[in-house]
Design goal:
Elements lengths: L7 H17 L2 H29 L8 E2 L13 E2 L6 H4 L14 E2 L11 E8 L3 H9 L13 H5 L3 E4 L11 H4 L4 E5 L9 E7 L2 E16 L3 H18 L5 E6 L11 E4 L13 H17 L24 H15 L1 H14 L2 H7 L4 H29 L3 H4 L3 H23 L5 H28 L5 H8 L2 H22 L16 H25 L22 H9 L11 H15 L5 E12 L8 E12 L3 E5 L6 H8 L7 E6 L2 E2 L4 H5 L2 E4 L11 H11 L4 H14 L17 H13 L5 E5 L7 H14 L4 E5 L3 H7 L2 E6 L2 E6 L1 H8 L2 E8 L4 H11 L4 E6 L2 E7 L5 H14 L2 E8 L2 H18 L1
Length: 924
């Protein structure tokens, strides 16, 4: 049956079915992969529920009390409001009319004896000391002025301060709600500094706050540097000794005078948090400005800072969206988890040469890329859909608040980018373990760097935007930035009660999603192109020219075989020196190149393979000056010692390596330029079994049968026959995973793969290795039947196998063909001797040798060990009857333990040719 080469869609269908079957074998792995985002989303949902429960406690609500000072009451009876709240609770209350507070200075903590003056020091300097002294003397009043009818308003005209830290708001000022006293600063405090109580009212509830006198003292310093150094020394001393800061403020009036007011202010921070640091600074600026006005216009002039007051607000609740808070880090890990899966799968095919095995059986690059890429894309899409669905069903605001269309576009572009990157990086790795470790280091490293470095740059508005874009060129950071934008939108929307990210938001200059989508899309296309280019130029089995994409613009030429035959016409065949059979084969090849026919499936013309020297070792010709012609219907056997060049020859013929020089033609096509076409009519049984461990024997044959364009009942019949012929049908062996096969079963499956689909040329590299005698005989019968209408090149170390299967044999030594012919010819040409063997006691070894030399003087001893001797006797000098007669005479003279006379075997021929060739190579 003659099969046409399989079409693009037939190859794609074969690979798709294989991938689908492979996927079914990995259900547990897929379930574990899907469970990872599910478990993470469940944990985040549980954590969110726990946090929501904690935020539902009174500490995170407006303060409430039971009426009539009862300890317990129903929620409906409780009285709630800012007047019943502490500082934390006040931020959640409905406050239509916030209370007014006198402005405060931030003072440092001081130790005051009871009823004694408390000093608060301020430093000052200026270019004009007299001016600065007058202005600084105006800062603190000499006496307290309080209007009992309106204490709140009168306090504003005094200088008040507090040691308490300011909060993020002034709904309840900590200076008036904490246990610490409020100080009024003046130039001199009364001797009995008992202070007084400041009554104030919130929502009709009366409160009181203790107010004591603090002595404001000004100290002159000669320069701004002196002030700065002194403050720094105080800071260092306080840190090392735990002492207090004696200075609460400092002022440099610079060049201020009657016409210019220019000052620098050092102030005491109210908190380590940035949003609190400036909350009490306005009073310091007002104090200095007021003192300057009094310098200009007299003590009666005042710029009154009456009170501070927050904006009114409605009732609020504290919300914390944990998924959005941690999403940038955790979800980066979830999505990047797909990268090692894709990368290791591609490297696995490369390491086990499965890609080139598929290519050698006719799988083109187009179907491979389409199906493999689509396969990983579908898996990634399903994974991401499960991820988003899990998060949405569990109510995580990270997913539910942002537009699903934006999420789909973002995730879809990124998983394509991730797959393209995996294809590109797979050319770097040759080992699955190395690729796996490297990939997971990249996954966790990206998440950690994103969460603890890149996140900091994103939140720092002063960090240059161009450097952010440069960092986003790394795909992991682009992913993190997109997730970070989703998280920020969810947090903002959750806090404000609005929607999360929508399409119009992408036009916002502060939103980085648009630039991320552009970067990822561009990188996706670039990485995909680079990956395909590397695959075509560098990947084993392709080896195309770096400018292969310009091929379509070049003129079409004749096929290599025809072109060379035209060049050779009219030329004479030169006389050659060497072995007659090798010369004859060379002349046959040259004649075929002059007059090409379709009868010879394989023609090798001066084929050479040279490996350059490395690490100080000289280079070596693995194959040199090989001329060979193999017609259809012939099984050509290649014999040779290890390292002779047999596997290097096979590797060139099947496209694993390129020849250094020379040419070879399969079905008239040059292996250097038409390997893709050659693959469609070629079968290979490699030296090492190239199988998917998770696919069964039947599934392997179905896949490779489809690649060879077998369909329907013809495919089923071919698979069944292959399984039966190679004894893989019975006992459930056909449906057992290849990873559980014995070594012999794997070899039989490899042979079945090489023969399925009626290939015209088959290469078998030691096909019977590891087989038991019964399986070997079965395999031989299959090969005998297979060689009827196809050319087979077979390498083996078994002389019995070579003699049983091969129509012609070639013996390889050091890369050269030493002899060629059928087994009988070789034994007749190189084996014109009998091998005589006799075993006696060591005392009669000399007698045996004398006996043999009497038979013929041209005897050659080839073996001698502990009484056993072997001799080569030329057939033309010896008659078998004479040998038997001589042995009978010897038996009467001494004891003969064993003896034998054998004709030359193929093994003897092999050993003789190999030794002679190696000796000649050594001499040369």
């Amino acid at each position: 049956m003659v099969l046409n080469p399989s079409s693009f869609w037939t190859q794609a269908n074969a690979l798709f079915r294989k991938s689908l079957t492979f996927q079914k074998r990995n259900v547990k792995t897929n379930v574990r992969l899907i469970l990872f985002p599910l478990i993470l989303c469940v944990l985040l949902a549980l954590l969110q529920h726990f946090i929501d429960t904690q935020l539902n406690t009174p500490d995170f609500k407006c303060g409430c009390v039971c009426p009539n000072q009862r300890e317990t009451c129903d929620d409906s009876e409780k009285l709630c409001g800012i007047q019943y709240s502490d500082e934390t609770q006040a931020t959640f209350c409905k406050i239509p009319n916030p209370p007014e507070w006198p402005p405060l200075l931030q003072l440092q903590y001081v130790y005051c004896k009871e009823n004694q003056s408390c000093p608060f020091n301020m430093l000052f300097t200026a270019e004009n000391r007299s001016f600065a002294q007058i202005v600084s003397d105006n800062m603190f009043p000499s006496a307290l002025t309080v209007n009992s009818s309106d204490i709140m308003a009168s306090l504003a005209s005094n200088v008040l301060g507090s040691e308490s830290s300011a909060g993020t708001d002034s709904f309840l000022d900590s200076g008036f709600t904490s246990a610490l006293p409020v100080y009024y600063l003046q130039t001199q405090c009364p001797q009995n500094n008992s202070g007084f109580s400041f009554p104030y009212q919130i929502e009709g509830i009366n409160f009181e706050q203790d107010i004591r006198c603090g002595q404001g003292i000004n100290f002159w310093r000669n320069s701004s540097d002196d002030i700065n150094n002194e403050l720094y020394q105080i800071y260092e001393r306080n840190n090392s000794e735990g002492r207090i800061n004696e200075i609460f403020s400092a002022v440099d009036f610079l060049n201020s005078n009657d016409d210019v007011f220019d000052v620098t202010v050092w102030y005491m921070p109210t908190s380590i948090w940035a949003e609190n640091k400036l909350s009490r600074v306005p009073r310091s600026v007002n104090l200095i400005s007021n003192a300057y006005l009094q310098f200009l216009h007299g003590p009666g002039t005042k710029m009154l800072f009456e009170f501070v007051k927050e904006m009114p607000k409605s009732e609020t609740a504290y919300r914390l969206e944990i998924a959005s808070l941690l999403g940038g880090l955790f979800f980066t890990w979830v999505i990047l988890q797909l990268f090692p899966v894709v990368l290791t799968s591609l490297v696995y095919e490369k390491q086990h040469k499965l890609r080139i095995m598929m290519k050698m059986h006719g799988l083109g690059d187009g179907p491979y890329w389409m199906i493999t890429y689509g396969y990983f894309l579908v898996l990634s899409v399903i994974y991401m859909l499960c991820f988003v669905i899990f998060g949405s069903v569990l109510g995580l605001k990270f997913f539910t608040m942002n537009d699903y269309r934006i999420q789909f576009v973002f995730y879809f572009i990124y998983i394509n980018l991730q797959i393209s990157l995996a294809f590109m990086l797979s050319s770097v790795f040759s080992n699955v373990k190395t690729a796996t470790v490297s990939a997971y280091i990249g996954v966790f490293g990206t998440g950690l760097l994103g969460g603890f470095l890149f996140d900091y740059f994103l939140q720092d508005s002063s960090f240059p935007r161009k450097w952010i874009i440069c960092m986003e060129l790394y795909p992991g950071f682009a992913l993190y930035r997109g997730l970070w934008e989703f998280a920020q939108s969810a947090i903002t929307g959750n806090d404000s009660g609005t929607d999360g990210m929508r399409w119009p938001d992408l036009s916002d200059s502060t939103n980085g999603m648009k630039e991320v989508l552009i970067i990822m899309f561009v990188e996706w296309t670039v990485f995909l192109f680079v990956a395909y280019y590397i695959d075509q130029v560098l990947t084993t089995g392709s080896g195309k020219s770096p400018l292969f994409f310009l091929k379509r613009f070049q003129k079409k030429h004749l096929s290599s075989f025809k072109k060379l035959s035209i060049q050779r016409q009219g030329s004479k065949v030169l006389a050659h020196t060497g072995k007659p059979d090798v010369i004859q084969e060379r002349e046959k090849v040259e004649q075929l190149l002059l007059e090409p026919t379709i009868n010879h499936a394989i023609v090798c013309d001066d084929l050479k393979k040279f490996y350059p020297g490395r690490d100080g070792n000289p280079g070596k010709f693995a194959v040199k000056e090989l001329f060979l012609a193999v017609p259809r219907g012939e099984c050509f056997g290649m014999l040779g010692p290890n390292g002779a060049g047999k596997t290097s020859f096979i590797s060139m013929m099947i496209g694993l390596t390129k020849p250094t020089s020379g040419a070879a033609y399969v079905q008239g096509l040059d292996i250097r330029s038409h390997m893709d076409a050659i693959y469609t009519s070629m079968g290979v049984c490699p030296q090492h079994d190239l199988l998917w461990e998770s696919l069964t024997g039947r599934e392997h044959l179905l896949f490779y049968g489809r690649l060879k364009n077998l369909k329907g009942s013809a495919l089923t019949q071919a698979v069944e026959e292959s399984l039966k012929n190679l004894n893989l049908f019975h006992g459930g062996v056909a449906d057992k995973k290849a990873g559980k096969y014995s070594g012999g079963m794997k070899r039989r499956l490899s042979v079945a793969i090489s023969l399925i689909g009626d290939p015209k040329v088959v290469y078998m590299d030691e096909p019977s290795t590891g087989l038991d005698p019964a399986s070997r005989k079965c395999l031989w019968n299959v090969i005998r039947l297979a060689k009827r209408d196809r050319a087979i090149i077979l390498t083996t170390h078994s002389m019995e196998e070579a003699e049983a299967l091969c129509d012609r044999l070639g013996i390889f030594v050091d890369g050269s063909l030493q002899c060629i012919g059928n087994p009988k010819e070789l034994k007749g040409r190189y084996g014109g001797t009998y091998v005589f063997t006799m075993t006696t006691s060591s005392d009669h070894e000399k007698d045996v040798e004398n006996m043999v030399r009497q038979l013929t003087p041209n005897v050659n001893k080839i073996y001698h060990l502990s009484g056993t001797q072997k001799f080569e006797l030329p057939k033309e000098d010896v008659k078998i009857a004479n040998v038997f007669q001589a042995v009978e005479v010897a038996k009467r003279n001494f004891t003969v333990f064993a003896w034998g006379l054998a004709d030359t075997t193929l093994e003897d021929v092999f050993i003789k040719v190999a030794r002679h060739a190696q000796a000649f190579e050594t001499l040369s």
